[in-house]
Write a structure and sequence with these properties.
Length: about 600
């Protein structure tokens, strides 16, 4: 007994000293727990995220103003242009995440994509500084040069490409700094996504206040120069943190094993299921100390046939051919991805609501009274800061107040399940669109009463409630989606998992553009379009009511999908400090 106890103590000491989750340090060795990862590494990572969000929101929130005032696009065209750019920017991470997981690794992908992002900012600065590339030679530009438009759009889409590698890889790289199999680090990781978004919101806040103010009062060129210098500095800081990071090797295409499961299941479609699921093929735990094994689940049983050992063939030959025999873990990983599709689809309407904040909400601010004190007038895009404030408030209260209370009440480490958190945010999105519709109706009434002054006597802070509410909703849904897609994808697809989260927003931007086109066509055919040349000739209040109804109906569908969702179920890993079945805490479905 003394020998067993001594062995257990040695294993526990070893676990406290070394990180045994398949990660490596910068020299390719097993990382020391005390000198790598956790917050000491995450702070470097959050700095470059702060810089990227500062740049992104400094550009994104004022993009519709630039397109209408400098490029001279009409409201409908400008809104579509913003949605297309936002859509590409948030769908590109699917490619970047795949390359990071399969070939390049997360650190290398972040570094390369950040350099591409920096090149985009440099090109954008050049388009506003070099005389031959500027919109025109005068301050008031009635018709911009074609070369400026080409360089401008090339620059912002180069930034989209940079974001494509940066966003999914950086966030998953940050989460990789926490060991899921070590209880203390696992709890810190649950806070990581909250504090990651806190840093993101700080970047957003400065982007829509300081940067937008410089754009409005100094010059677009000066704002671009500031963003370029900040991004260059943050890349240097990110590289300086290299000795503190934990790295994961690229494991090859994560899509190949899934295709192998499909092929094996089709080949064995005529075989009978074994009476006991334990007879399905799996690698013995002793053969895989690094890879986490998943438990068998009853859903999508057809795929289980891929793990049936065919008694009529040599078992050794089958085990050597992954196109004929798959492990239970590989089958379950494919099930995880398939089960995510309904969740992904039912969160798109929330993304459509978010898309309005950087288009129509900002454009509304242009028409309102933006003076606050002593004649100081805030830039229209700065009102977006209220969304960031709402998100910071909700994240702080959630992490510091709600989670501790709910942990004691529910016994769940997270407080509430991830899907419950997402659903709460969706309720806020419905409220946002209702409030936005009422405020826009009030604005239009003022325009009809006094066509000359219109809504210029109405304070811009009438928009505050809709920005605050959507910001609070973001603190639940967007952060919940980040955690959900990182946590529930197969371990080999975690950069792609973050890309799946971003693709919700990307797809929502494209759907929003499509919805504008459809509504414009239908309403114009039946009399007068809801989208005129400007806001005063439009009926955005009707459009907001439509979104509120769509989101409310979708919320009901989401609840049904969430209640029937099965979370990732990892085999317990016996350790001396804790028995880990860490992905089953969310087993309760959406209530």
């Amino acid at each position: 007994m003394d020998k067993i106890k001594k062995r257990e103590e040695l294993v526990e000491i070893d676990e406290q000293k070394w990180v045994n989750d398949s990660s490596l340090d910068h020299k390719g060795r097993v990382p020391l727990r005390g000198s790598t990862g956790v917050w000491k590494a995450s702070l470097f990572i959050i700095v470059i995220e702060f810089s990227e969000r500062l740049s992104y929101f400094g550009l994104a929130t004022s993009l519709i103003i630039y397109l209408t005032k400098v490029i001279h696009q009409d409201l409908k065209t400008a809104a579509k242009s913003v949605n297309y750019w936002s859509g590409v920017t948030t769908l590109m991470p699917l490619l970047g995440g795949f390359l990071a997981d399969a070939f390049l690794g997360r650190f290398s992908t972040v570094l390369a994509s950040s350099i591409v992002y920096l090149l985009g900012l440099i090109l954008l600065t050049m388009s506003r500084v070099i005389p031959s590339l500027k919109p025109c030679d005068t301050d008031l530009c009635h018709e911009p040069r074609n070369v400026h438009e080409v360089i401008f759009f090339l620059a912002i889409y180069l930034i989209s490409i940079g974001t494509g590698g940066h966003k999914p890889s950086l966030e998953s790289f940050g989460a990789d700094q926490f060991d899921d199999d070590y209880a203390e680090e696992r709890k810190k990781k649950m806070s990581f996504f909250n504090w990651w978004n806190f840093g993101l919101c700080c970047g957003l806040l400065l982007g829509v206040t300081l940067i937008v103010y410089v754009q409005d009062r100094v010059s677009w060129a000066m704002a671009d120069l500031i963003l370029t210098l900040v991004m260059a500095s943050s890349i240097i800081i990110f590289v300086a943190g290299r000795p503190f990071y934990r790295y994961r090797k690229a494991t090859g295409s994560p899509l190949t094993p899934m295709l192998q499961v499909f092929v094996a299941a089709i080949r064995k479609r005529n075989l009978l299921f074994p009476a006991n699921p334990s007879h399905l093929y799996e690698i013995p735990k002793s053969d895989t100390s690094q890879r986490r094994l998943l438990c068998h689940t009853e859903k999508l049983k057809f795929l289980d046939k891929a793990a049936i050992v065919d008694g009529t063939q040599d078992s050794t030959v089958q085990q050597q051919n992954p196109w004929r025999l798959a492990t239970v873990t590989k089958v379950e990983e494919l099930k995880l991805v398939i089960n995510m599709v309904p969740i992904w689809l039912t969160t798109i309407p929330f993304g459509i609501c978010v898309a309005q904040t950087t288009t129509f909400f900002i454009k509304q601010g242009v028409t309102l009274d933006r003076k606050i004190f002593h004649g100081f007038e805030i830039p229209p895009a700065s009102i977006f800061a209220l969304a960031a404030i709402g998100m910071i408030i909700s994240l702080t209260i959630y992490d510091k107040v709600l989670v501790p209370v709910l942990r004691r009440a529910t016994g769940n480490e997270r407080g509430i399940s991830i899907l419950q958190r997402i659903g709460i945010g969706m309720i806020f999105s419905v409220s946002t669109m209702i409030v936005a519709a009422l405020v826009e109706r009030k604005r239009l009434n003022l325009v009809h009463k006094d066509p000359l002054e219109g809504s210029s006597r109405m304070s811009v802070f009438w928009l505050a409630p809709q920005f605050l509410i959507i910001g609070i909703g973001d603190g639940f849904t967007l952060v919940g989606l980040q955690e959900y897609f990182y946590d529930q994808v197969p371990d080999s697809m975690r950069s792609l998992g973050i890309a799946f989260y971003l693709s919700v927003i990307g797809a929502a931007n494209f759907v929003s553009s499509l919805l504008i086109t459809i509504v414009d066509h239908i309403t114009e055919k039946n009399g007068k379009s809801w989208f005129g040349k400007d806001l005063n000739s439009s009926r955005l209040d009707y459009f907001y009511w439509l979104l509120a109804i769509m989101t409310a109906v979708n919320l009901c569908v989401y609840v049904i999908v969430a209640r029937n969702y099965s979370y990732k179920n990892v085999h317990c890993k016996a350790t001396m400090s804790v028995a880990v079945c860490n992905d089953t805490d969310d087993r309760e479905a959406m209530a």
